[in-house]
Amino acid sequence: MSRFMSSRFDGLEAYVPGEQPQDMQYVKLNTNESPFPPSPAVLEAVNREETGRLNLYPDPEGKALRGRLAETYGVRPENVFLANGSDELLFFAFMAFCDQSRPAAFPNISYGFYPVYARLLGLPYTEIPLREGFVLNPKDYCGLGKTIFIANPNAPTGRAISVDSIEEIVRTNPDHVVLIDEAYIDFGGQSCLPLIKKYDNLLVCQTFSKFRSLAGGRLGFALASPGLIADLEKIKYSTNSYNINRLTMAAAIATLDSSEYYVENSRKIQANRAYTTEKLAELGFETLPSVTNFIFTRCPAVDGGTLYRELKARGVLVRHWDKAEISDWCRVTIGTREQMDIFLDRVREILKEVG
Ligand code: PMP
Question: What is the residue extent of each domain of the chain?
């Protein structure tokens, strides 16, 4: 830190993103991207013509894309907010809906950005422990009287709670926003989106980064009552009114036009998830049930840190955290069948040598 930086950030520990090696030397199973490229329609949409318009600012309202999203989800454009990745959306939500009298609350094991945003903004927050087996007990959130952030399905565990449980949490916190982060909803989970018509305090966040193969385009979106969307707009127009670039908007519209391609990819990921889980079980691994494009797994013979390092040394990247409660575990993104076979072969080698 230089001597010029504000001392209010002295205690801030920035979020550490997963490794993004640029040389393509690794089988990359560490940041939950899709292994499949964007659809052919997306490649066509991001063309010379659209690139040639980069001298002009994009539509700050993102009207065309919001309209297509509204159509896709059976809501109105006033129910849709666009952000530069759901990370930006989460940041805006912490800014808009939390303060000293509206502290934030989220599970102790969840997406690592939640506590970082709370600390960056100087907000009070509570981390609510998950129960045995990393299970979220909805009762811990009912009538809490705080702004609640829940990733459903959760990351890095892959576990989900039911829509009924979410409704119970939203219903019993009528004076606080409940944000449900559905980054991984399209790999077998059930979205709570229909509830936005019934509850004005529910904010559903999704992303184009996983199921829609557009992590590099940076696009997240929220679906909620018009009041909450207007609040987010206020923060956006006070921060960065052109937050979505032209090429990403064109790519996203083409993505929504190719839904069959993405549904088919999700089906493949789900099949590879079942395959990988089964093969790991044969090797003595314990894997949590997952409805996402990743699995959370551990092996009694090798601790999580060793497994991560040994895999990396053999060209396979997975994610590991030093945090005590989860240091035995690794999170493994589900890729193509070929990628998962390489991963499994490397695991077998490691078990022979280290285990
Ligand atoms: N929420 C969760 C639970 C995530 O795991 C991620 C991805 N790291 C995000 C939000 C952010 O995704 P993005 O900014 O790429 O939309």
Answer: 13-37+260-354, 40-257
